[in-house]
Amino acid sequence: MLQMLQVVVHVQHMVGMHLAHLLNLLSQLLYPAERMLIVSVLYLRFDRCYLLQMLQKNRQRAYEEHHPEKDEGSFPEVHFLSPPAALFYHTCPARGQGEHRTGANMAHEGATSGRSASMEKVRLGIIGVGGMGSAHAKMVQEVEEVQLAAVADIDPAVAKSVGEQYNVPFFTDYKQCIDSGLVDAVIVATPHPVHPEVAEYAFSKGLHVLTEKPMAINPVEADRMINAAKRAGRVFAVMFQMRTERPYRIARKAMEQGVVGEIMRTELVSAWYRNQAYYDSAEWRATWVGEGGGVLVNQAPHALDMFCWLAGLPAKVTASTRTRLHDIEVEDEAFALLEYPNGAHGYLYTTTNEAPGTNRIEIAGDRGKIVIQDGQVTIRRVEPPLREFTFSAADMWSGPKTEPVEIEVEEMPAGHAQVTRNFARAILYGEPLLSPGEEGIWCVELASGIILSSKRGKTVSLPVDRAEYDALLQELKASSQPKRKVLGQRVSDPNIVR
Prior knowledge:
Helix 9 runs parallel beside helix 10, helix 10 (219-232) runs antiparallel to helix 16 (437-456) and helix 13 (301-311) packs across helix 16. This protein has helices at 2-15, 19-29, 32-45, 48-66, 103-109, 132-139, 156-165, 174-179, 195-204, 219-232, 246-256, 276-279, 301-311, 386-392, 416-429, 437-456, 466-478, and strands at residues 122-127, 146-152, 170-171, 185-188, 208-211, 236-238, 263-273, 316-322, 333-339, 345-351, 353-365, 368-373, 376-383, 401-404, 460-461. A hairpin with a 2-residue loop joins strand 12 and strand 13. It has a domain at 2-94. Helices cover 39% and strands 18% of the residues. By secondary structure, it is of the alpha/beta class. The strands form 2 sheets. A 9-stranded mixed sheet has the order 14-13-12-11-7-10-9-8-15. A 6-stranded parallel sheet has the order 3-2-1-4-5-6, sandwiched between helices. It is globular, with a radius of gyration of 26 Å. The longest helix has 20 residues, at 437-456.
C-alpha cells in the first residue's frame, strides 16, 4: 500500500495529472478505505482549498441530479469535517469552470478560479519564457498574492532552464501547461501574434489571463479575446504597467476631475531607438507574419494606451507610415493627424529612429493644459476659461492667467509587479483591474487605424472596419519575405523596470 501511495504521488507530480482525473481513476480501482487514505495524502500534499472546493462541487452535482425540482444554487453549503468523507461521491473530471455560476455573477462578485473563492494565492503559469516571460518569472517572486506554478516555452532548453531555475514543472506545449491542473491563471508572454490563440484556449479551460502588450495584432482577434473572457467569466488584463506610474495617474485623475475642461488639442511623441541587431534578434521580429506591424505594435503600445487612457480614442485618423532607417519590412516611423468626436484635433508621432528618445503627451483644454514628458507631469489651469476670457478681454494683448495645479494620488508601487498583483487581487478579492482587456483593445484599434489609413491612402474612422483591416493584414502577410539575417538572441530588455 505504501508503494502504491508513492507511485500515485510521483505520477501526479511528474505528468501534472489533474487532481480530479486522478481521483476519478482511483475511485474505479481502489476499495473505499484505500481511497480515503490516498485522498488524505493528496490533501496534505496539495492545495486543500481546491480539493475541498472540487469535492463540494461534486456533492452539489449529485444533489441536483437527484433533486431536479430545486432551483440552481439551492444545495446547502457543506462544511467538511475531514477531506476523505466526501470521496464516496463521484469525482468530477472537469476543473471548476463555472458550471454552477454564470459569467455575469462572477464578474459581479469578482471572478475566481475553480479552486476556491477563499484561496490565498493564485497559482500562475507563464507561457513563453524565452524573452519577457523570463523577466516575469523573476518578477512574480516579489508578488505575495501569486505562486509561480509552471512555465512553458516551445524551446525545450529554455523551458527546462527556467523551470529548473524556479523549481517548477515545465512544458514545451502551452496546452499541456494549461491542461495540467497546476495553474489558475497564466501570463501570456509569447510573440504577440500568438497571444489570442493562447488566451482563448486558457479561457476555454477556465483560467484567468494576463497578456503582454499588445493583446492582439488586429481588432478582430482582440474582440474574440474579450468575448472569450466574458463567456468564461474569467479575469482578463493586459500588462500596461505605465498605468501604475505616478505622473500618469496624476494626469488621469486631473482628466477625471475635468481640470483642463473640454479637450481642444492632443499631442503624442513616442520616440525610441532600436538598432539593426535588435530587429535581427529573432525570425519573427519586424515582419508582417511574425509581428503584424513595426513600431506601432511593438514599441508604441504603452504610449498609445496612455494617450487613449487620458484623452480617449479619436474618431478619425489620417496617417503616414514608412520604413526610414532599418532593414525591415514593417514601419519604423508613423505619423498621424487625429480628430476627436467633439471636433478637437491631435498629432501623433512614433519612431525607433531617434536618440535620445522622447516620450511626451500634451493635452490642451479650454480650462488648462497637461504636459507629461520624460517622467514629469505639469498641470496648469486657466482662469477664467478661454471661452469666457476670449470675448470679455478689452486689451488686445492680454491673456488669461494660468496657475499650477497640484493633485495628490495614492502612493503605490509601479511596474509589472503591481499589474500582476492587481491581476491576482482581482481574482482573489474582486479588486478592479488597472488595465482590463476591454481597454487593452484601444491601442490595437488606434494602431490598426493608422496602418489602414497609410496603406489605403485615406482617412479612417474608428473603430476600424474589421473586415477591411483583416483583408489588408492578410495582404501584408502574403507579401512578407524571409529574413536575410537572424542572430538568434532571445533576451529581455535589460532596461525594463520590473
